[in-house]
Write a structure and sequence with these properties.
Shape: globular
Number of domains: 1
Largest sheet: 4 strands, antiparallel
Structural class: alpha+beta
Strand content: 15-25%
Oligomer: single chain
Length: 382
């Protein structure tokens, strides 16, 4: 198979003009290349390079290619395991987008009585919107008006200097709209970095690591308590252990996988799955979804029950949503990359590395944190 001419936009969306598509391809390609290189080995040990990860625009995909779908539940597991009971976790998850850290965020619309009438979900990364805003700001305004509110004004989204504000009045809460992801860890750069880091095989004390928890704790590519990070890492590493070359399928993105409505009941006996609608992205790459009952049905989302309990929180629906990414693997048994024989480490150093200012040092001159300041492209926190 030939190399890819250019990376396409998430969901194969058609918002970008020609210049925007070129800018997007460059962003993804550069981010993949950075992930292949890995962190500076003078600052981070045992985490670079990542030779089993490859760029689709620079390396061909062999004929033995396998597409591997990795899915996880969108409800934030960190909230689940730190809450006392369902009611508390649903309340906490609905209270702030900052805790919705499984690459899925949502906003809830209620009627005058407080009953839910609509829940909007998004898994669109912020980087796409940064590129779109830079290349076609008017299109950004049009999309907000179409999907969030006709009342959106350009000055609501852009600073006086013309810079797009991802966290704006229409995209910073769980009640006034969700245009794209804003939680600090929910970025495409984080997805790419995590996938690349997970291609490193780990043989520690003569034993090759293979389980979700031992891999994420050793490779430190995310939070061990999340649904997404350990599961993505283990899925990718399973391919790496088959000595395959690995990449993320084009178009690179996070996508809705499915909504399960087992145990749901509607007042009129209609199929509760029928009120779930994908409204953005192509049929294989859905990036925006809405759960809403048409007005002529005579009931609302809040009248539907899950396990006998009425839907009172968007988080109840998130329990049943799965998100996915798709990896590519080829040239099985062909990689000559050797495994790392130790876990990722952040050593303290006594020599001031180039590019770091005095603020990176303690008063004694000892370097406090050898990790470079990360942009949003690779900010998946541990």
């Amino acid at each position: 198979m030939a190399t890819l001419d250019a990376y396409g936009p998430p969901g194969n969306l058609d918002d970008l003009d020609d210049f925007g598509r070129k800018a997007w391809n460059k962003f993804i390609s550069d981010t993949v290349d950075e992930a292949i290189q890995g962190p500076d080995p003078r600052q981070v040990l045992n985490d670079s390079p990542r030779p089993q990860f490859y760029n689709l625009t620079g390396t061909d995909t062999a004929s033995d290619v396998q597409r591997v779908s990795i899915t996880w539940t969108s409800f934030p597991r960190i909230i689940k395991i730190t809450s006392v009971g369902d009611l508390q976790r649903w309340q906490r998850a609905d209270a702030s987008r900052d805790v919705q850290d499984e690459y899925c965020e949502w906003s809830v619309t209620r009627d005058g009585s407080g009953k839910i009438t609509r829940v909007t979900f998004t898994c669109e990364g912020p980087e796409y919107w940064e590129v779109l805003a830079h290349t076609n700001p008017d299109k950004v305004v049009d999309l907000y008006r179409a999907f969030i509110s006709p009342d959106v004004r350009k000055e609501d989204l852009f600073s006086p200097s013309g810079r797009y504000q991802p966290r704006n009045k229409w995209n910073d809460s769980t009640s006034h709209g969700a245009m794209h992801l804003i939680q600090a860890n929910n970025t495409l750069g984080a997805e790419i970095e995590l996938a690349a880091a997970a291609t490193i095989r780990r043989v520690v004390n003569g034993q090759e690591l293979s389980t979700e928890q031992e891999l994420v704790n050793c490779s430190k590519y995310g939070a061990a308590e999340r649904n997404s990070d350990p599961h993505i890492g283990a899925g990718v590493n399973a391919l790496a252990r088959q000595r395959a070359d690995i990449s993320l399928a084009d178009p690179v993105g996070l996508y809705f996988d499915d909504l399960s409505t087992d145990g749901w009941e509607t007042p009129d006996g209609s199929d509760p799955r029928s009120y779930w609608t994908y409204v953005r992205g192509d049929s294989e790459h859905r990036v925006r979804a809405v759960y809403e009952v048409p007005q002529d049905k005579g009931f609302a989302v809040g009248d539907i029950t899950i396990g006998g309990r009425p839907i009172e929180f968007g988080a109840q629906i998130a329990d049943f949503i799965t998100i996915r990414l798709t990896g590519l693997a080829c040239r099985f048994d062909g990689s000559t990359a050797q495994p790392q024989t130790a876990c990722k480490e952040f050593p303290a150093v006594d020599v001031r590395p180039e590019g770091f200012g005095a603020s990176a040092f303690s008063t004694s001159g000892r370097f406090l944190d050898p990790r470079p300041t990360l942009s949003y492209r690779s900010s998946r926190a541990t």
